[in-house]
Amino acid sequence: MTVRFENNPLKFQVSEQSSSDKATTILPVLDPPEADSITAFLRKPEMRERLQRQFASGTFTGKAGSTLDLSGEGLILLGMGKAISFHPDILHSTLLKFASNLKDSKNRKWILAFSGEMVKAMDDFAGLYRNPELDALLAPRATREVRQLNRGTSTGATAAKKDDTPTYPDFRGPYDVQEAVSQSVCSLCIGIDSMDLLKSSRKPAATNSRRTTSNEPEVSFHVAGADRAAVREAIKRGEILARCINGARRIEALPGNHMDPSHFEQYVRGLARDTGLKIKIFQAPQLEKMGCGGIMAVGKGSAVPPRMIVLEYTPTRAKFSGRLVLVGKGITFDTGGISLKPPAEMHEMKYDMCGAGLAVHAIAVAALRKLPIPVVSLIGIAENMPDGKAVKPGDVYTAYNGTTVEVQNTDAEGRLVLGDVLSYACKHYQPGILMDFATLTGACVIALGHEATGVLSPSDALAGRIEEAGRKSLERSWRLPHWQIYDDGLKSEIADTRNIAGRPAGTVTAMRFLSKFVDREVPWAHFDIAGTAWRSNVAGGQPKGATGWGVRLLNQFMEDLVG
Question: 3-class SS at 357?
Fold first, then answer.
């Protein structure tokens, strides 16, 4: 199967109208909904009384995740919950689930409208971030809201139930309607884009050769009080992000026999051609001569040789004096090698290349958006297989920077590949900022679950920038320790270091291993995306399978870096 960097499955534009006889309006509404504020979005004014009856009877309350389908009348209401509890995650998860309707419906034209009431809820959410001192006022404010609801004094209110006490957004960041539009584009494109790439029932036109056609669903945005040019720019931003997120998800969804190191190289060559990126490939014989002992050790057991891929983006005019260098772990399938993994869930180890998918598509974002920042992405690609030639527990190899490494567990292989790529990046590209991304440790999943990525960095300034970008992009991360005291567990009796340090603090000791391959003066952050890169089930506003986590965060990080 040939995999290509596809276009988006939807078309987007700005709408001057909030409703149309030729389109169905999708309207996010708060709890409780107000018929007066919805009237402007109705095709027929007489529908107002029908809506009032629906609201009064409690058939539809605007509760987060609820839907009132009046598509026959050209309107669908999506519940966003109470204004005080609004969080952009609610909008994202609701649109993610709703997106399948765009594909299955006979309707091909849609209007996604944000009312003035909805825009105010977004502004209020952002206000909590801008004014952290309001935290102390949240509880009194909530109590006041509930009392008003119980007395029926709140405008358009219905009696509150005992369990109706609002919750408050606890992961807050700057947010506005432009961000909401970009986010909505991503949510709809992710929700509608199917990952069933290998099903025999899949239409031939969908085998990764998608081109824009007149039959694709069209979504127009109408935002109360917003500047049309700003909305148009937000749509463009969202389209690029959606394309790159789905590109990452698509290659990560493919099984090992359809996405081995050679397939990955083929895909990246096509992406580089489509985005104008400079590409350089180091094949196994070159890596051997260069002294990349870590990459070669991991790839020795596979019939498909390992390789290293370098992508470069150079803007016409740069606003950042250094280079942003991204490094991705690309184990296209991880059996564990001689230290073989248990068979249960081993099939999910096709996702062990998600760090590579992120690094590749993040630089594609920079190129497609023409961001004024030089970016280099370096990817170590290998398949970790057991074989007569495979690296064995106890073997010692020499890494690219001359460090000798005792391999005590062949299932801790990603760090061996990353070590070579990180040291190569430091030597040849003098990073202004260095970041690496890897599905590295199960310990990170135990610590943070599937909701947050572990970030480890010796640089407080860089860690702060990452935290800020995460809040703006709504991609959660949490900083873990990075201290040298954890190095003790990596001491080897026969080599400079060993690749494991036991079970305690496994995420931290993995980062400390990688630190041996990074120049100390380089601002560096390690991202352990083991818990966020994919999901076995739909949860937390993320799709099942590969999530494309990190593309939005890195886009925001690059935006912030250049002001």
Answer: helix
